[in-house]
From TrEMBL:
<dbReference type="Pfam" id="PF08534">
    <property type="entry name" value="Redoxin"/>
</dbReference>
<feature type="signal peptide">
    <location>
        <begin position="1"/>
        <end position="19"/>
    </location>
</feature>
<feature type="domain" description="Thioredoxin">
    <location>
        <begin position="64"/>
        <end position="201"/>
    </location>
</feature>
<dbReference type="InterPro" id="IPR036249">
    <property type="entry name" value="Thioredoxin-like_sf"/>
</dbReference>
<dbReference type="InterPro" id="IPR050553">
    <property type="entry name" value="Thioredoxin_ResA/DsbE_sf"/>
</dbReference>
<dbReference type="InterPro" id="IPR013766">
    <property type="entry name" value="Thioredoxin_domain"/>
</dbReference>
<keyword id="KW-0732">Signal</keyword>
<feature type="region of interest" description="Disordered">
    <location>
        <begin position="26"/>
        <end position="55"/>
    </location>
</feature>
<protein>
    <submittedName>
        <fullName>TlpA family protein disulfide reductase</fullName>
    </submittedName>
</protein>
<dbReference type="InterPro" id="IPR013740">
    <property type="entry name" value="Redoxin"/>
</dbReference>
Length: 201
């Protein structure tokens, strides 16, 4: 077993053990990184464990990674072709990492869809599913009528690993692929504050 496939296998096991259920309150997060034995409420936005509760940081803007380059990992577009964040340079990118099994992710998805409509062609809004079964994503989008979002998939969890993500996680990148800010946990992406943040990017 290669180290890559071994990592994905271990990550899948961690997901199965710690995945958030449909009843989890929106303020909690699913621990996708699986890098420690910490529970989701022990992970702070900078990845440190045990310093703050998830409830105290969920939905807050975190600029501690500002200026970092986007990871070069690939994921799949709606047609099943590989793409990467580099393919979207030239415009700011609002990258959302989510999954169909994550209740906070599902809760914020309609507002992300609305944010995509508000941003229009000025910002790429990418909702990249971290489901290991890509075929679940398009039917979910159709059922939820998320018409402004494209069903991207990252079944090998490359973005989650690169960002040490607790789902949902949203990262704002500038037109050159450099991080501006990120948010761990659900947020209303169509409210006035979020709309202004996205527009200013």
């Amino acid at each position: 077993m290669s180290s890559r496939s071994g990592t994905v296998f271990l990550l899948a096991a961690a997901l199965a053990a710690s995945a958030c259920d449909k009843q989890t309150p929106a303020g909690e997060q699913a621990n996708v990184a699986g890098a420690s034995n910490a529970s989701p409420d022990e992970v702070s936005p900078d990845g440190a464990v045990g310093s703050k509760s998830a409830a105290s940081v969920a939905g807050k803007i975190d600029r501690t990674h500002q200026g970092e380059a986007a990871p070069s990992v690939t994921f799949f577009d709606a047609a099943g072709k590989k793409t990467s964040l580099a393919d979207f340079r030239g415009k700011p990118v609002l990258l959302n990492l989510w999954a169909t099994w994550c209740a906070p992710c599902i809760k914020e998805m309609p507002s992300l869809n609305a944010a995509a409509a508000i941003a229009g062609d000025k910002v790429h809004v990418l909702a990249v599913s971290q489901d290991m079964q890509r075929e679940k994503v398009a039917p979910f989008f159709a059922e939820q009528r998320l018409t402004r979002l494209v069903p991207y998939g990252d079944p090998e969890l490359g973005l989650s690993l690169a960002y040490k993500a607790n789902l949902p996680m949203t990262i704002m990148l500038d037109a050159n692929g450099r991080e501006l800010w990120r948010v761990s946990g659900a947020r209303d992406w169509a409210d006035a504050e979020s709309t202004a943040l996205i527009a200013a990017s």
